[in-house]
Amino acid sequence: MIAKSPLRVLVAPNAFKGTFSAFEVASAMAAGVRRALPEAQITCLPLADGGDGFRATLVAAGGGRTSRHRASGPLLEPVWARVGWLPGRSGETAVIELASVAGLARIARPSPHTAATASTRGLGELIRAGLRGGPAEILVGIGGSASTDGGAGLARALGYRLLRADGCEIPEGGLGLRQLHRIESDRVDRRLAGVRVLAASDVTNRLLGRRGAAAVYGPQKGADRATVAGLEAGLHRLAEVAGRDLGTSGLEARPGAGAAGGTGFGLLAFCGARLFPGADLVANACGLDGALAQADLVLTGEGRFDRETVPKHCAIVSIAQRAAPNGPGSPGAL
Questions:
Q1: 102 with 146: CB under 8 angstroms?
Q2: How crowded is residue 42: how many other Cβ atoms within 10 Å of its Cβ?
Q3: Strands 332-333 and 297-299, how do they pair?
């Protein structure tokens, strides 16, 4: 009599935003499988798409390390945040997660005021901390932001000066961008030019318009209708002035430029970054394809699944796309 092989189960969830990390979700799902199927062979592979858990997932998959740094939170309050470090043949890669330093989860009560004034300055401070480590490249996960400042805060942390007509710095936050008159780059950290910057995002929104950063994601961050209109005007002004002073015309129309309140645009314009789908980047780093090939059943999920999920570059969509080509014998994803 031939013994039946145990069911091979791959547990590969994303974080449940605002509740559990991907590691915690995977652990809970695995415990449930063990109770129902004690003989099953379970493999846990927590995933991410650029938001919460991005750094931790990549560091765990790559056998990396972390360093701890003081930085500015979304409302410029002092916070502690970490930079991940992954080994590589041509040097280390610094891994930075926007959500961990300037994410919406750091604001207890989002409101029109916080939506108007939240900043990405802390992200720029972590990038600068990464530069001090001499990495070959910097990988930035840009999901889960609290701000809609187009990356203006991160730019200032890196040495750019965003000035009003009278020569004074504009206020922090997206509404302050309406006062932008010129951008000066003569004080930018010179180390930035020698490092590749890659940005991982889970959305393809452009910077401006009814599907842009302010219109789609501003209300989620506390913005009312008037604040959304002001943020849209500020982002339009940023794109206009950056195009003139930095030669970045057209970047606002790139898919992903509207990610994280326009941080995608900011990384493109101020750091010369390249944008990638975060879920695919993490999946490749974690060896998802190999794990799928060895599985009979795949369990995945994230905190919310609705009509906005499918167009996103999220982990569960990445799993479904990768599993489907394997045909009738491929694992079932639930």
A1: yes
A2: 20
A3: parallel
Tokens encoding 133:
């480590």
Type of residue numbered 34: R
Query: Quick one: pLDDT at residue 175?
Result: 97
∠ CA 89-130-76, rounded to 5°: 155
**Model pLDDT, residue 333:** 47
Cα distance between residue 96 and residue 195, in whole Å: 14
CATH code of domain 54-279: 3.90.1510.10
Long-range CB contacts (< 8 A, 24+ apart) of 162-167? none
Domain ranges of the chain: 54-279
Query: Residue 46 in contact with residue 61, Cβ under 8 Å?
Result: no
pTM of the model: 0.88
Q: Residue 187 contacts by C-beta under 8 Å, 6 or more apart in sequence? A: 159, 160, 161
- The full DSSP string for 222-256 is T--HHHHHHHHHHHHHHHHHHHHHHS-TTGGGSTT
pLDDT top residue among 242 and 327: 242
Tokens of 250: 């057209």
Average model confidence (pLDDT) across the chain = 91
User: Which residue type does 24 have?
Assistant: E
Token pair of 239, please? 């794109």
Distance separating alpha carbons of residues 303 and 317, to the nearest angstrom = 14
Residue 95, token pair as written in the block: 């891994």
**Which amino acid, one-letter code, is at 27?**
S
The strand ranges marked E within the chain are 8-11, 41-44, 65-72, 78-86, 93-97, 137-141, 161-163, 182-184, 196-201, 274-277, 297-299, 332-333
**Looking at this protein, which amino acid is placed at residue 180?**
L
Q: How confident is the model at residue 216 (pLDDT cuts 50, 70, 90)?
A: very high
